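# nightly structure sweep
# worker-07 picked up a monomer target from the shared queue
# config: single-sequence mode, recycle default, output format = C-alpha cells
# input follows
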Amino acid sequence: MSEISPPIGMISAVLGPHLSRTSKMRLVVPVLVAVLTMGACTYLGSDRSVVIVEMTEGAWSVMPEELSEAELVFRITNTGTEGHRPAVIKTVTAPAELRVARGEVDLSGTFIVWPGGGGSFSEWPPEEMAELFPLVEAGETVEDAARKAGEGHPGLGTYVVLCMVPGHYERGEYAWFEMSAADG
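# output follows
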C-alpha cells in the first residue's frame, strides 16, 4: 500500500474513492495556498507583519485591515492593466479626504512610510519626488520593508496605500489599514 500525504489522506477519508489522486490534489493545493497566505498576511514573527496590497484600476485592497504595531513588510501586486505608483503614508486625514490639486495628492503633513525608508513629506527634495514612487507594471509584484519601529517609524494610527499617478487617487485607487498597540 502506498503512503498518502496527510491532506490527501483527509480528502480520501471524506470523499472516498470517488475522486482520482489528481482531482484530490486540485482540491488540496488551493486550500494549502490560502491557509499559508492567511498566515503570512498577518504574522511573520513577533515583530514583523506583512501587508498585502492588490492594485487594479479604480479599486485597491489591503490585508489585513487591522494589525498590531510591528515592522511592516509590503507585498504590492498590480493585478490591473495599467502601471501604478504606490505609496504608503501615515496621516490623520480620513483616507477618502486627502487633499488633491491638479489630480495629484497633496502629501503635506503626512509621513511617507514606503517607499524609500520613510520621512515627512517636507524632507524630500522636489526633484526626487518623481523617482521616489516606483512604477509597478501590470502583473508585477514588489516586496519591501518599511522603516523599523524605533528608527523614525510613525507608529500607531491610520496608514493609507495610494496611487501617486495623477488622477488615480480620485478614481478610488487607495486602501487603508489601522495599526494599534500590541496586545500584551
